[in-house]
Design brief:
Largest sheet: none
Radius of gyration: 25 Å
Distance between the termini: 73 Å
Number of helices: 13
Number of strands: 0
Order of helices and strands: HHHHHHHHHHHHH
Length: 314
């Protein structure tokens, strides 16, 4: 058992390198020309001595897989899996189900789940149901059972990565490969939902909205509005900065309007010499949007219309 696990774990650690090599040949690249998986820097699963620490090896493997799927592969993996239907691969969404289980296992082991919350209860049921199927109990009772579970989850991960590898090879051989790569380049140009979170914090800090600075609050605001924001960003022309346009959308949302703001907080701050974090930026932002909605004009003209209002020391 341990020799087989040694081989499986070692191959698992090398698998992303193989996939990245194929992705580079195909042309499916992420930010800064990074292939499917960026480097994983968390501690690697134990390769030797698994018979002395099956539980530790299992936990390290879950941690490593979580980072691989949810962080190192976050920007590219979804695009690759979305193409699986073209080649009749990934039947019954095997990869998505496996990745979701890893996500839930990581939460199960590292967070205090509340059994009274439906979402937490479902996570617990999924994880303990998997353990029951592998070891006969909701939690492995000894090291032998931990090793059995480690073998199962490693095999599942192998199958997932093999499917991803097959999808990339299929794209490489596809006669419409150039169309798929162009689709990827278009997708890669757009901001991803998680990239909006720091922008929410930046805009909130600029206009003195300390109540939106906490990352959990910023994420909640993003999740509530990301569909509208991302839809608007798709219409932005290539010669415009996606992040600046996103800041305008976020600014507009914070000051109460569900459309892109005609100005950036920094433009108002620079024009009227207002320091970042001053609540006057929030007030002037709301007024500017009201003016622009009633009489659309350029950003420079709008700043001039704001000047007398700013002089009143809002």
């Amino acid at each position: 058992m341990t020799e087989l696990l040694d081989a499986l774990l070692l191959d698992l650690l090398n698998f992303p390198v193989r996939i990245n090599g194929i992705a580079t040949d195909v042309g499916v690249l992420g930010d800064d020309d990074t292939p499917v998986f960026k480097a994983v820097t968390v501690k690697q699963p134990i390769i030797t001595g698994c018979n002395e620490g099956g539980e530790l090896a299992f936990l390290q493997t879950i941690s490593w897989l979580y980072v691989l799927y949810k962080e190192a592969g976050r920007d590219t993996l979804g695009f690759v899996l979305a193409k699986s239907g073209l080649y009749k691969l990934n039947e019954d969404r095997y990869c998505e189900n496996h990745i979701r289980l890893i996500d839930r296992m990581r939460t199960y082991f590292q967070h205090n789940l509340n059994p009274n919350r439906k979402e937490d209860r479902l996570k617990t049921e999924d994880v303990e149901g998997w353990f029951t199927a592998q070891s006969g109990g909701s939690f492995p009772a000894d090291d032998t059972l931990w090793l059995k579970c480690l073998h199962s989850i490693t095999c599942d991960a192998h199958k997932c990565l093999e499917i991803i590898e097959s999808i990339l090879k299929s794209i490489e051989a596809d006669e419409f490969r150039d169309v798929i790569i162009e689709d990827w380049k278009q997708k890669n140009r757009l901001l991803q939902p998680h990239e909006l979170d720091p922008l929410v914090q930046e805009v909130a800090a600029e206009i003195g909205r300390d109540d939106l600075m906490d990352i959990e609050v910023a994420i909640a605001l993003r999740k509530k509005n990301e569909r509208d924001w991302l839809q608007s960003l798709k219409l932005v022309t290539e010669n415009k900065d996606q992040k600046e346009e996103a800041r305008k959308l976020i600014f507009a949302t914070i000051v109460g309007m569900a459309r892109r703001h005609p100005l950036l907080p920094s433009e108002i701050a620079e024009r009227f010499n207002i320091p970042a974090g001053d609540s006057r930026l929030d007030k002037l932002g709301r007024i500017a949007l009201d003016i622009w909605m009633s009489e659309p004009c350029s950003g420079a003209e709008l700043l001039e219309k704001l000047a007398p209002l700013n002089e009143k020391k809002l």
